[in-house]
Amino acid sequence: MSFSEQFIVHEHDVLVIGAGGAGLRAAIEASAAGLKVGVICKSLLGKAHTVMAEGGMAAAMGNVDDRDNWEVHFADTMRGGQYLNNPIMVEHHAKESPARVLELESWGAVFDRTKEGKILQRNFGGHRYPRLAHVGDRTGLELIRTLQDHGIHKGMEVFMEMTVVSLLTTGGKISGVLGYDRERGRMRIWKAKAVILATGGIGKSFRITSNSWEGTGDGHALAYQAGAELMDMEFVQFHPTGMVWPPSVRGILVTEGVRGEGGVLRNSEGKRFMFDDIPDAYKNQVAADEEEGWRYVCGDKNANRPPELLTRDHVARCINREIKAGRGSPHGGVYLDIGWIKEKLPNAADHIKRKLPSMYHQFKQLAGVDITQERMEVGPTTHYVMGGVAVDGDTQMSCVPGLFAAGEVTAGLHGANRLGGNSLSDLIVFGKLAGEHAAKYAKNNAAVEVDQAQVMAHTNAIMQPFERTTGENPYVIQHELQNTMQDLVGIVRTETEMQQALVKLDEYKARMKNVSVIGHREYNPGWHTAIDLPCMLVVSESITRAALERKESRGAQFRDDYPDKSAECATFNLVAKKAADGSMQVTRRPIVSMRADLKAVIEKMK
Amino acid sequence: MSTPTTQSKPVDESRNVQFRIWRGNKDGGEFVNYTVNVTEGMVLLDCVHRIQAEQAPDLACRWNCKAGKCGSCSAEINGKPSLMCMTRMDTLPPDKVVTVEPMRSFPSIRDLVTDVSWNFRVKKTIKPFKPRKPDNADGSWTMFQQDIDRVQEFRKCIECFLCQDVCHVIRDHHKEDEFIGPRFLMYTAALEMHPLDTEDRVGDLKNRDGIGYCNITKCCTKVCPEHIGITDNAIIPMKERVVDQFYDPVTRLFRMFKGK
Q: Is the peptide bond before A246 cis (omega within 30 degrees of 0)?
């Protein structure tokens, strides 16, 4: 078969990979610049993992507390990220998110309202004031549906249920991408002047995760293989509250909104253990007792937050400690209790159902638990990766000319730990920036010719599992990899265990070359898993190598053998890059220095 | 005082359950039998995944969130359109074979995966949101919670298309060219009832979208996993608007004089 018969070829100015919040926002922006835009998504349009975001999007609009402004949001985000964040991105985010939220309203989003008829904002961990614009506990659905329903009228071409297997480069510049459609398994080439990665996260590299099958780190791996740098990969966020029972729902997210609405954490002795351990950076921001914490939840401006609303890294570790100390719940979690607010509110059950409808629904239907009357059992779950493709803070372009990134696949905004609610605003702020700058790039640069030899090499590689008849089942390797990462590179890390993990990862790399799949190319999940494996391995290796290199505990990284922060480690980010010999090199890069005026903001907010 | 816990429900012994799963494509197919060991708390999607991982790696099904939020894993379980991720095994009759089929109103792609692209095409034909000018200098609008409650109900829709699957106008009469189905009648209602929207879609509902085909059997409402009052809260009010605009005698007289 000739080259042109073997491949379906598409051509775009800007091609977006991923149709979650960041991808759709980027595609809308690039379309608005009058360019030919394509969007490729692994699932149907509107199903991306953004729909799972529950609590809200952080934007300092000051609708509920007028003391809020971009400076407070800037300082909160830097503090939450333990100052490893790129301050330029944090500044963009804090300044631009209110306008991006209003823009969603102008596109049809319907946010919950304040009594004055403004967009309502709720409390969340690490945010000094109520800051999260939300729709009950289904904010992500509102975001994705708004962008989808607006975007489909803007001329973008959407390719659903297609997977990208490689970025194509010629002379180091982006020339397009290679992929296949899941329906028929046909190979396709998308030629493009600029490519935006908006592929989301990596949670599937761990056994317990809130992520769907899509979270296999495709964008991270595609960028890495194309010569881009992965930064901050050691920082994986374990969300403190995932479901733990029954086993089939283990890991599914329980929104931080439960705690924002007054939910408290207790151990098996009934104790609110979060009061026992308050980090120094938050000492003067935490309620002195339970009564003050409740007043904060009710909107008392003079009250400090309850300790359940500390940052996620800290809350997850405290929960982990209680479980390990034998004070956990029967199924290996702790208790999250929202039903107790009936002592304070006359119509508590209705209030909970109205504020947290999908949580009510989820527990009722999947666990047989009525959260208005019974406690939930929760435990940490792999949720989000702060690390990702290193980009320019203003343009979102990586070190590969023509390759941009936005959203979870990108590093920089969140530093060592992300604040809840900063993810949805990240998507719309940086989705827009990436779309805008990719469009500029596409206008200023001619298309680069696709390298056919490269295309053939990648195509042959992914077809190999069909040619083997006696190889291993890809699901088995995937399963073992998830166990390795969960058990050896999880929430508490040590040198010894991570060295063991590296040995295992090497073993999987070898075994991966010998997987076989049955059936044919049409909608074959076994084959798709075989293609996901190399991506998951790049992600896992970069997490492990970076976590080994960072010999301290900071943000989401907790090292049992280095339990404290080190001043030296505060000075660098870690960058993983593919070396000429194909091995992964991890190097230190000085953190982006902060402008004097931004330093002054930090000082002022201390 | 903290809330009591009653989560330690009696532990169900694991049991073997027989499944009949439809396997095939647009050219035809057949039911294939599988046996799965089912343990406490498992949902039907877990069983399908177990079959994929252990017995049939090429068994095709769609899924994403596994928590009833994305609407990907729609299928017909023992004949009832449902989400596989929200169907707990202990809610199905014990000791009976469980039948799993794809949504039957849509063309087959493979196994449990169907071609739902018609839905995406239909949505594109509906006139988009068109807001009035902002109320405030900062570009914002003033809206009150009581004004948006009913729209928010419709916006809970996860686009699982189970309502489209069950609707007899589509399922039995195949009026896809003349009828947009409950999902998009409700989508239109959400736009029409949006406090900021200034567009008029009532004429389209009558003339192009086939709202008259709906005879309010409420099958769509019954299968909605989000428990949205599709018929009562969305479709009936839209039918009333059509009546008001096109069949009300006073309005008709008025239109006659205006020559519309």
A: yes
In a shared domain, residues B67 and B177 = no
Residues A205-242: tens digit of each pLDDT: 999 999 988 999 999 999 999 999 999 999 999 999 99
The C-alpha atoms of residue A10 and residue A441 are separated, in whole angstroms, by: 19
| pTM exceeds cut of 0.90 | yes
Query: Would you call A343 exposed, middle or buried from its count of C-beta atoms within 10 A (0-12, 13-18, 19+)?
Result: exposed
d(CA B229, CA B232): 6
When the pLDDT of each residue in chain A is averaged and rounded to a whole number, the result is: 96
Domain end position, chosen among B92, B110, B128: B110
Which sequence spans correspond to the domains of chain A?
Answer: 7-238+383-444, 241-382, 452-572
- Using the predicted structure, report yes or no on whether residue A379 has a pLDDT greater than 90: yes
* Whether residue B134 is found in the same domain as residue B174: yes
Nearest to A213 among B41, B63, B155 (CB): B63
Digit-coded pLDDT (tens) for A392-430: 999 999 999 999 999 999 999 999 999 999 999 999 999
Contacts with A, B 215-234, CB within 8 Å? none
DSSP classification of residue A332 = S
| Per-residue pLDDT reduced to its tens digit, B22-42 | 999 999 999 999 999 999 889
Q: Which is catalytic among the residues A79, A239, A418, A528? A: A239
- Across chain B, how many H-helices and E-strands are there? 10, 7
- B1 belongs to a structural domain: no
CA A412 – CA A430 distance, rounded (Å): 11
Give the CATH number for residue B22: 3.10.20.30
> Which residues of B fall within a CB distance of 8 Å from A367?
7, 41
What pLDDT shows up at residue B1?
A: 44
Which residues are CB-neighbours of A455 under 8 A, at least 6 positions away?
A3, A7, A168, A178, A189
pLDDT at A382: 96
Q: Which residues contact A383 (CB under 8 A, 6 or more apart)?
A: A203, A209, A210, A211, A237, A238, A239, A242, A253, A312
Cβ neighbours for A155, distance < 8 A, ≥ 6 positions apart: A31, A37
Half-sphere exposure of A177 (CA within 13 A, CB side): 30
Residues B79 and B167 in one domain: no
Show the CA angle centred on residue A378, arms to residues A375 and A384, nearest 5°: 145
Q: How far is CA A315 from the centre of its chain?
A: 18
Encode pLDDT of B69-113 as tens digits.
999 999 999 999 999 999 999 999 988 999 999 999 999 999 999
A247 CB neighbours in chain B (<8 A) are 39-42
Same domain assignment for residues B62 and B97: yes
The domain boundary, picked from B58, B91, B110, lies at B110
Mean pLDDT of A28-57: 96
B191 plus B130 within the same structural domain: yes
For domain A7-238+383-444, give the CATH number.
3.50.50.60
Q: What is the ipTM of this complex?
A: 0.93
Domain over A452-572 is classified CATH 1.10.300.10? no
Average pLDDT over residues A307-319: 93
Check if A259 is active-site: yes
Find the closest chain B residue to A368 by CA distance.
Answer: B7
Q: At A190, phi and psi to the nearest 5?
A: -110, 110
Note whether B66 and B190 are same-domain residues.
no
What would the 3-class secondary structure string for A256-283 be? CHHHHCCCEEECCCCCCHHHHCCCHHHH
The CATH number linked to B180 is 1.10.1060.10
The predicted pLDDT at position B3 comes to 56
Look up the domain containing B26 and give its range: 15-110
B142 in contact with A at a CB cutoff of 8 Å? yes
> Tell me, what's the pLDDT at A426?
98
| Architecture in CATH of A241-382 | Alpha-Beta Complex (3.90)
Minimum mean pLDDT range among A58-67, A451-460, B246-255: B246-255
Q: How far is A589 from chain B (nearest CA, A)?
A: 36
